[in-house]
Design a protein that fits this description.
single chain, 293 residues, mainly alpha, Arc Repressor Mutant, subunit A, two-stranded antiparallel ribbon, two-stranded antiparallel sheet, 13 helices, 46% helix, globular, HNH nuclease domain-containing protein, HNH_nuc
Length: 293
């Protein structure tokens, strides 16, 4: 399938998924947005599903982060090639049929790094760092803050600084708007559009909550890293943001002594599967600097 056509369909799916109540309605909304035939849209959905770049949650469609990165990347950019590779590299016949061949040594080096990563991660750290770099405005006239602060001790910190040596975050949060969209999209995928504390499944009511607050981030990647986030309902976002609750590295709930009548708030532990090594680092920051003991 033509890459530009596939990109259009992925973007339209991403924009339509929260509005649609059924598969048929989703396909019709995508058709209206793109003016691409229903047959081609269904072929694209089947292609993405077969290559595990899309899944169905009952009648809701959920795109994997690599598909969204591919659709939003500039044509022939490094992130477009890498995200396309992550989606389809396991299918040799697909590569051959589409005449896809990678010769660029830098891209081959990045692929080698990605192959060494945990295949169960929802998005490659290498790809996520490169995508963050590709969309953040690098103009020298943009004022930054927090340049003297330290990032959490990420294992990939060396690679991060080799790609993005600029420390701190923009003082104007609007500059990172596209990264905030990516941050929430990735959390929507990771948490199946459900608050992991109470189980409420109302995507429009859910908030991409930073564990280490945006205002405290020492590097723009910290603000974009899905490991620095939880997808929470409004009630639990407030309690977590204000430090009334936090979590241990095993997902066990911690309740502040300042929270009156905690039994009223439907509080629960986090599933340990969400406590990735990097998320534990951000949660350590939350316990030390945000939680009210």
């Amino acid at each position: 399938m033509n890459k530009n056509t596939l990109k259009q369909i992925i973007l339209a799916i991403n924009e339509s998924s929260l509005e649609s109540q059924s598969r048929e309605e989703l396909i019709e909304r995508v058709r209206e947005r793109t003016e691409i035939s229903k047959t081609t849209i269904m072929q694209a959905i089947d292609l993405l599903y077969q290559h595990k770049a899309l899944e169905w949650l009952q009648d809701e469609v959920d795109l994997f982060p690599c598909a969204v990165i591919f659709a939003r990347s500039r044509p022939n950019s490094i992130t477009e090639v890498l995200s396309y590779w992550q989606m389809f590299h396991a299918d040799a016949s697909f590569w051959k049929d589409n005449g896809f061949e990678i010769k660029d040594k830098k891209i081959l080096y990045y692929i080698e790094q990605m192959e060494k990563e945990d295949p169960t991660k929802i998005v490659s750290d290498t790809l996520s760092i490169l995508y963050t770099d590709s969309i953040i405005h690098k103009g020298k006239h943009i004022p930054y803050k927090n340049e003297d602060r330290r990032i959490v001790p990420l294992k990939n910190k060396g690679f991060l600084y080799s790609v993005m040596p600029k420390k701190g975050i923009p003082t104007n949060r609007d500059i990172s708007k596209d990264l905030q969209v990516y941050f929430k999209d990735t959390l929507m995928h990771e948490f199946d559009r459900t608050c992991p504390i109470c189980g409420i499944h109302m995507p429009h009511m859910l908030i991409a909550s930073h564990i280490k607050p945006f205002r405290d981030c020492a590097h723009i990647f910290e603000a974009a890293d899905h490991n620095n986030g939880l997808l929470l309902c409004r009630n639990h976002d407030f309690l977590f943001d204000q430090g009334y609750i936090s979590y241990q590295d095993d997902g066990k709930l911690i309740i502040s002594k300042h929270l009156k009548h905690p039994e009223h708030y439907n509080l629960n532990d986090l599933n340990p599967k969400y406590m990735s090594e990097n998320r534990k680092l951000y949660m350590d920051y939350h316990r030390k600097h945000i939680f009210q003991y």
